[in-house]
Design a protein that fits this description.
69 residues; mainly alpha
């Protein structure tokens, strides 16, 4: 599935997640596939626990001044 289809599939759940937690999570911040992310998003909404407790976040090192984000 391409990113546009995935975004359309996640849109209604992102809105529900935002209403609960106050922000919309970004799939690129987590170490999982699209399918794992979508399943975790549904579980996070159902259990009302943040996505980072279900799927680990990527470790980003912002100390490297040569890398552009």
């Amino acid at each position: 599935m391409n990113s546009i289809e995935f975004g359309k599939k996640c849109r209604p759940y992102n809105i529900q997640y935002r209403d609960i937690f106050g922000y919309v999570p970004c799939r690129d911040d987590y170490t999982c596939s699209q399918d794992e992310y979508f399943d975790a998003l549904l579980k996070a909404i159902e259990t009302k626990c943040e996505l980072s407790t279900i799927v680990p976040k990527k470790n980003k090192d912002f100390q490297d001044t040569n890398k552009r984000y």
